[in-house]
């Protein structure tokens, strides 16, 4: 290798590095600009000036009375959240109204695969009938309730979910989006959009389509073709839901918390069509994820790369400390560390739930307030 070749190679590397940094900076600017535009169009200039990082919380352990909700929105704001996601327990227009009054971005959580009369339910595979989640979970302390199952401890979701290929799925989701839109919500967030067994659906319709797909992709080993088929099924559904939502209301922002996990590709969320993609970087339950895993998941969530230009990765932190979830409590110091990781990784958005449990512990509330302030 000659000196001149090495020198020109070094020069080329330097140029590439500079170009890469410039394009990364441009991409970041573009994302910040897009977010600002979304916020300006939806909630006016005040919030957009104050914050271009979306900081979302959600609650399901708080009173769902009108008074309780109004107070919860105020408390979320005090901690530094600028967005509130409402679950199925809270259906009223009061929520969006209260958020608007207090300057928060309002989000309606929608479960497109929620069990419906006449809908075709997902079918698990042979052998899975003995797994926790299909059989009662009971006092199974290793059960992850929709988080990634532990090694050597297979499980499925307790939620009966509709097959993603069922013709009624988009129709049902659109009816919920319409309600959210007419109630004045700024955004919708998909939840429980996945497979009950975290990998497949063995209904007759899916099996027939899978056989066709495998025949078409005979170059792929059968298991790879199967994984691609079921992953594509979710990606396709996301695309349909996005298009249908924007048809109802072009200003509606679309988020998703990628759940349950899709085990053949834990990061398939990078392919789906959403404005904000929340991927879990720290799960609610014991055993608590080591901080290096939190860092790695956050890095992937923030950096993507995302298949759809404009998608912003949203690190999602789960937190419980009360009721039967009390043994899963993490300390205030630990929660602050998690949020500091999110800040250090340059996140442009963050989600941390559950608000009722955060508020139940003053030290954790303070850690959240401090941690959120560091994410800018
Ligand atoms: Zn199916």
Describe this structure in words.
Helices cover about 45% and strands about 10% of the residues. The chain is an alpha/beta fold. The protein folds into 2 domains: about 1-50; about 55-375, Glycosidases (TIM Barrel), CATH 3.20.20.80. Strand 3 (about 105-110), helix 5 and strand 4 (about 185-190) form a beta-alpha-beta unit. Helix 8 packs parallel to helix 9. The longest helix has about 40 residues, at about 5-45. The termini are far apart. Residues about 1-10 and about 35-50 have low confidence and may be disordered.
Q: Main beta sheet, described?
A: 8 strands, parallel, barrel
Order of strands in the sheet with the most strands? 1-2-3-4-5-6-7-8
Alpha-carbon Rg, integer: 22 Å
Order of helices and strands: HHEHEHEHEHHEEHEHEHH
Name of the CATH first level of the largest domain: Alpha Beta
The structure class reads alpha/beta
Q: Into which percentage range does the β-strand content fall?
A: 5-15%
Global morphology: globular
Name the CATH superfamily assignment of the largest domain.
Glycosidases
**Domain count:** 2
């Amino acid at each position: 290798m000659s000196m001149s070749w090495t020198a020109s190679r070094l020069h080329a590397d330097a140029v590439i590095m500079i170009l890469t940094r410039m394009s990364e900076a441009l991409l970041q600017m573009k994302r910040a600009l897009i977010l600002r535009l979304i916020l300006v169009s939806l909630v006016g200039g005040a919030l957009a000036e104050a914050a271009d990082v979306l900081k979302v919380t959600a609650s399901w352990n708080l009173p769902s009375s009108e008074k309780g909700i109004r107070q919860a929105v105020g408390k979320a704001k005090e901690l530094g959240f600028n967005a509130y996601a409402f679950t199925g327990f809270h259906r009223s227009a009061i929520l969006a109204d209260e958020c608007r009054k207090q300057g928060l971005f309002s989000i309606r959580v929608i479960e497109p695969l929620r069990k419906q009369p006449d809908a075709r339910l997902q079918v698990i595979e042979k052998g899975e009938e003995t797994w926790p989640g299909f059989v009662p979970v009971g006092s199974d302390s290793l059960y992850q309730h929709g988080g990634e199952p532990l090694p050597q401890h297979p499980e499925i979701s307790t939620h009966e979910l509709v097959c993603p290929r069922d013709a009624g799925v988009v129709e049902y989701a659109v009816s919920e989006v319409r309600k959210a839109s007419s109630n004045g919500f700024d955004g919708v967030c998909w939840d429980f959009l996945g497979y009950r067994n975290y990998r497949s659906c063995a209904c007759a319709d899916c099996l027939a389509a899978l056989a066709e797909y495998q025949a078409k992709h005979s170059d792929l080993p059968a298991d790879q073709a199967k994984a691609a088929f079921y992953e594509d099924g979710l990606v396709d559904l996301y695309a349909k839901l996005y298009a249908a939502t924007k048809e109802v209301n072009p200003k509606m922002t679309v988020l998703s918390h990628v759940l349950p996990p899709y085990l053949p590709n834990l990061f398939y969320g990078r392919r789906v069509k959403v404005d904000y993609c929340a991927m879990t970087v720290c799960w609610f339950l014991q055993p608590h994820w080591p901080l290096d895993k939190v860092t790695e998941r956050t890095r992937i969530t923030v950096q993507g790369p995302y298949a759809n230009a404009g998608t912003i990765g949203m690190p999602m932190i789960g937190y419980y400390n009360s009721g039967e979830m009390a043994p899963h409590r993490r300390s205030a110091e630990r929660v602050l560390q998690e949020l500091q990781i999110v800040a250090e990784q340059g996140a442009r958005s963050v989600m941390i739930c559950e608000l009722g449990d955060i508020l139940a512990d003053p030290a954790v509330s303070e850690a959240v307030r401090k941690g959120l302030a560091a994410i800018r």
